[in-house]
Amino acid sequence: MSGNKKTFDDVSQVPLGAVSADDMRWNKTGTWRNVRPFFDPKTSPCIAGCPAGENIQEYIALAREGRFEKAVRVIWESNPFPAICGRICYHPCMDRCMRSEHDGAVFIPAIERFLGDYAIEKKIKQNPPSKRLGFEIAIIGGGPAGLSCAYFLARRGFGVTVFEAKEQLGGVLRYGIPQYRLPNDVLDAELDRLYALGVKIKTSTVVGKDMGVEELSKYSAYFLGVGLQGSRRLNLENEDARGVMPGLKFLEAVNTGKTVDVGKRVVVVGGGNTAMDVARSARRLGAEVTVLYRRTRNEMPAIEDEVREAADENVAFRFLAAPAEIITHNGGVKELRCQEMELGLPDDTGRKRPVPKAGAFFTLPLDSLLVAVGEIPDVESFESIVSVSNGLIVTDEFGRTSNEKVFAGGDIVTGASTVVNAIARGRGAAELIAAELTDGVFDPKQQRKVVAIADINAAYFLHKKAATMPQSNGGGESFTEVNLGLTCDQVKQELSRCYSCGVCDGCDNCWVFCPDVAISREDGVYTIDYDYCKGCLICVQECPRGVLASERETS
Amino acid sequence: MKKVMEGNHAISYGVQASEVQVISAYPITPQTQIVERLSELCAGGELDAKFIKVESEHSAMAAVIGASAAGARAFTATSSQGLLLMHEMLHWAVGARLPVVLANVNRAVGPPWNIWTDQNDSLSQRDTGMLQLYCESNQEVFDTVLQAYRIGEKVMLPVMLVLDAFFLSHTSEIVDVFGPDEAREYLPPYRPAESLSPESPKAFGNLTGPDNYYELRYSIFNDMQRAIDVAKEADDEFERLFGRRYGIVEEYRTDGADTILVTSGTVTSTAREVVDELRDAGRAVGLLKMRLFRPFPTHEVRRVLGGRRKVAVIDRNIGFGVGGIFAQEIKSALWGVGEHLPLFSFIAGIGGRDVTPDVIKEIMDITDSSEMPTEEVYWIGVKDEQLSYLTK
Known about the structure:
The complex is a heterodimer.
Chain A: E1 35-39, H1 45-49, H2 56-64, H3 68-76, H4 82-88, H5 92-96, H6 100-103, H7 108-121, E2 136-140, H8 144-155, E3 159-163, H9 172-176, H10 184-196, E4 200-202, E5 221-224, E6 230-231, E7 244-246, H11 247-255, E8 265-269, H12 273-284, E9 288-292, H13 304-312, E10 316-318, E11 321-329, E12 332-346, E13 352-365, E14 368-371, E15 375-376, E16 388-389, E17 392-393, E18 406-408, H14 411-414, H15 419-437, H16 488-497, H17 509-513, E19 519-522, E20 525-528, H18 538-542, E21 548-552
Parallel strand pairs in A: 2-3, 2-5, 3-4, 5-18, 7-14, 8-9, 8-14, 9-10
Antiparallel strand pairs in A: 1-21, 6-15, 11-12, 12-13, 16-17, 19-20
Chain B: E1 2-6, H1 7-17, E2 22-25, H2 32-43, E3 50-53, H3 57-69, E4 74-79, H4 80-95, E5 101-106, H5 120-123, E6 131-134, H6 138-155, E7 159-164, E8 172-176, H7 180-183, H8 210-242, E9 249-252, E10 259-263, H9 267-280, E11 285-290, E12 292-294, H10 298-305, E13 310-315, H11 325-334, E14 343-347, H12 357-369, E15 378-379, H13 384-391
Parallel strand pairs in B: 2-3, 2-4, 4-5, 5-7, 6-7, 10-11, 10-13, 13-14, 14-15
Antiparallel strand pairs in B: 1-8, 6-12, 9-11
């Protein structure tokens, strides 16, 4: 043992208690350690859950400090449309939120919407690219995938032209999703970001019809994001009778302000989000609406919130029923004969397969039959340039097609999916195109380890109730927006509820708890002094957010 | 400033006047209001102290030990089972020479559960090396908090302040309180010679072998002995500044008394009345109140009791297999000084049973009725009928 031995001349000099005579720093107690704590920042589960990979933890942390502009710019790094996605996203981020089991998930989309709206209201400018590259890229399809791809290419300095078949940009955002969920002025405000980047837009241009596919060859690369334009049919007789209409066509008519007469009684067939949009829009036209779905509410692919809101608006549901016969009178639809169903064994999607109940039928009188049983692709124009399988364009996970100049993403690659998935695919393809054209390195971010519930020390978080979305009165009657957005106080409360999973927020717990004073803090950065850390792992235990981890000492 | 307050709050305000810097406690009936008021004083900014919430009394004591080792003036409060759970840490505070103050509200120990007063919880800690002071009134409670810190910090030992459950803890009396500004001359800031510090990291409580441990124990013993004079000085100085004194023991109407009744805690107040009554009736009785129990004021006890005819001791506690604990201590004090004083040992008031003037008169009558005790221990007021019912 080192240290000096001290001898006292007199008993009165002896200290009262057992205290070392000298500083004990020579005694490097770190040698006692057999496990080692270390700072191991991780990915928050919400970020891992977001298809677009939005840095949710970071923008919440910034917003919590009141730095809203910086926060919204963080979102723009991975998603140009926070005001849109904050309204209509199916928010898988929330499903992964560690707060769920504590007192309810943080209302992430409502925060995103707040920040998106903040950027619009404060007219926060999209910065133009710092340099212009000499490449021109064509984007075919002005929906979420194409617009995302266009945005991220234009940010990097690529020249971008978007070809859109319809009169205006937006795709499903404009023609599919109703105004009461996503007002056009919000959509237009977010699209302004593309104009600010100098993206050229050619609307009313159907590639393969108004302009030959071969004309695309003058571009350095092009991206196909045409989505799913066809509607799946019921394959029943009289499906083209007056009063029978594909749901998407109905929505497009309503969303573009056309007069649509659906009569008094409407039956909507289908259980997805389109069916909900169709039902609620028809309700707003004054009809009594019944949704016919062949399975039960549990199997409905629509977002839970949409189903609940439809029910709140007095949309009726007939579960376990499928259309069997369309009965017409004078060329117009009159009745729908329905087959009762029951659930059988699960199919390959894991949902229970509906099977007809022998001899069980009922009839619904109706004025309109709106069919929303799925969308189908139309890739005929592109079959000559890329490989196609099952009607969809074949790509790798990043959007490479069989043609080295052609990239693709969105529903035309994945089949019917979501807006945020399309945005993610568009961005992924943009990164790939940029890398390939500039000899850059395409290195899709290796995700860090994701925080697990066991990493969280929830004892440090007070229970705070999750906010509920304020809604307009008289829902179900007009096309004005239903969800009004959180109040400022609610947003503040939600921001304060974020655990900041896996990312240090300087709470000092490790520093305070270390019994060996082996953690130091300088400018908000903590360092472990392994000369004295005995490996008790109290710091790991007391980190509320799973930033610290431990490993066995090997030597 | 005179205020009406319960005994528990008298403790809280004593702690405030003492400018305690760290408080840690776990709630237990009948101690709760002490800590409640302290938490309010901390939250309201009227007391600049760290209030540490903990999950047990063991941790509470550990927390104040840590705070005291780091050089802070620290306080905790508990009762009964809570004090028993602290036991290990009481030894630690003593061995580490940390002058924390602990207020213990005397409560009977379970099972069976009982929240009322008796002294077995604090007397079970007799040999830990903590000083023990038993209080009679709410004013004494308030004043004793300040005295406890003054004494403890001079001898570098922890001090337990003891008050009866409910009879003091929850009973309101007029208390003349003062704040830190008035207290500071009496109780200067705590400045220990050694304290924990990251700037100069030292080892505390090191492994100490047979060659040194013995001397460290000897040092505690000596400082405990010295604490008797320190406690007297603290009381004298308190009187000089604030006009009140209590003594380490108190004599009441002992002049010319043949028989001395010995009491502690709130029984004393009742006994004063009985002594007055018996004196008026011409009986030569006096009263000795035991305030300092550890260290035991052997010389004072000898001085007061020497030359009397008889001693009666009331114990609100029981040392199973021996008898009343105060009685045992007093017997020991009288041994070897040529006294053959008949000592009548009475057990009364255990588990919060009332010790009424009639109970005390009965005790005095028994003491008068024979030259020598006829029993080693007298249990006053045992309900024979109920006991026999219980054994059926």
